[in-house]
């Protein structure tokens, strides 16, 4: 992970703050292409859209999946403010995105958030390791900055 990765993670943290301000859970995602350009960003919309799948990562992938092929997405990096849940990890795999970088680990998030009935305590590495296509994963980083939003 380099300084540019950390800068993009800080952007996801800003997106997460915006999600909270809009009445949702504070999660944010950002997609960067091979040239380093922002392709899309998305925030969590579970509460305001009354959509249990309205996670930042799935919202982002729905947007870009209509425009970009898996071949283009293979050269992209998805940045997430928090380690993607099992649903989002699956969406990242099936989208074709080639790299994932996240800030807050699911382990620290669950320790902070408590043990709830609607949580699947599986890390994204465990999920993505089951596929035949490799998704490079880096993280966690900047965990305390993300936890401060909660």
Automatic annotation (TrEMBL):
GO biological process: tRNA wobble adenosine to inosine editing
A Pfam family hit: dCMP_cyt_deam_1
GO MF, one annotated term: tRNA-specific adenosine-34 deaminase activity
Keywords, in A-Z order: Metal-binding, Zinc
Residue span, CMP/dCMP-type deaminase domain: 3-125
Domain of life the protein comes from: Bacteria
Tagged with keyword Zinc: yes
Matches recorded under PANTHER family: CYTOSINE DEAMINASE FAMILY MEMBER, TRNA-SPECIFIC ADENOSINE DEAMINASE
Protein name per the record: Nucleoside deaminase
